């Protein structure tokens, strides 16, 4: 079963999650979601456990429990929703310079 863990302290580690949930059964994976640009924790993660009854026990025991001064939120993870691609294309409108090959400073025409 895949378990969502929210309101994590920003200094929490995947090893801490594994240890915390491991008290209730076998943990196959523990991951903390990080910001793509900064690499800092986003304050939530996921734990996957092999046995559903152990996972349910962990959810009941750990929901609203304290982790480094924060009450974590623990529940069964919902399936990931498929997001539709936008029709806006890939150009984000960044600086292009111009097609004439000169410097393209701000007074040049595109």
Features:
single chain; 110 residues; alpha+beta; Alpha-Beta Plaits; 4-stranded antiparallel beta sheet; two-stranded antiparallel ribbon; 2 helices; 27% strand
Largest sheet: 4 strands, antiparallel
Number of helices: 2
The fraction of residues assigned to DSSP E strands is: 25-35%
The CATH superfamily of the domain at 2-76 is identified as RRM (RNA recognition motif) domain
CATH class category of the domain at 2-76: Alpha Beta
Beta-strand segment tally: 6
List unreliable stretches of 5+ residues.
none
Distance between the termini: 55 Å
CATH topology category name of the domain at 2-76: Alpha-Beta Plaits
Estimate the helix proportion, in percent: 10-25%
Would you tell me the structural class of the helices and strands? alpha+beta
Order of helices and strands: EHEEHEEE
Spatial ordering of strands, largest sheet: 2-3-1-6
Question: What is the CATH-assigned architecture of the domain at 2-76?
Answer: 2-Layer Sandwich
- On the 0-100 scale, what is the average pLDDT? 86
What is the general shape? globular
Give an overview of the whole structure.
- This protein is an alpha+beta fold and 110 residues long.
- It has a domain at 2-76: RRM (RNA recognition motif) domain (Alpha-Beta Plaits, 2-Layer Sandwich), CATH 3.30.70.
- Helix content is 18%, strand content 27%.
- It contains 2 helices and 6 strands, in the order βαββαβββ.
- The chain has helices spanning 14-22, 52-62; strands at residues 2-6, 27-34, 41-49, 66-67, 70-71, 73-76.
- The strands form 2 sheets. The chain has a 4-stranded antiparallel sheet with strand order 2-3-1-6, covered by helices on one side.
- The protein is globular, with a radius of gyration of 22 Å.
């Amino acid at each position: 079963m895949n378990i969502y863990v929210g309101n994590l302290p920003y200094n929490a580690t995947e090893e801490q999650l594994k240890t915390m949930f491991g008290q209730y059964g076998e943990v196959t994976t523990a991951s903390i979601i990080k910001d793509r640009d900064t690499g800092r924790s986003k304050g939530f993660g996921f734990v996957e456990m092999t046995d559903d009854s152990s996972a349910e026990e962990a959810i009941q025991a750990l929901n609203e429990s304290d982790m480094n001064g924060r009450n974590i939120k623990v529940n069964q993870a919902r399936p990931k929703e498929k997001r539709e691609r936008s029709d806006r294309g890939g150009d984000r409108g960044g600086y292009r310079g111009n097609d004439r090959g000169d410097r393209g400073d701000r007074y040049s025409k595109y």
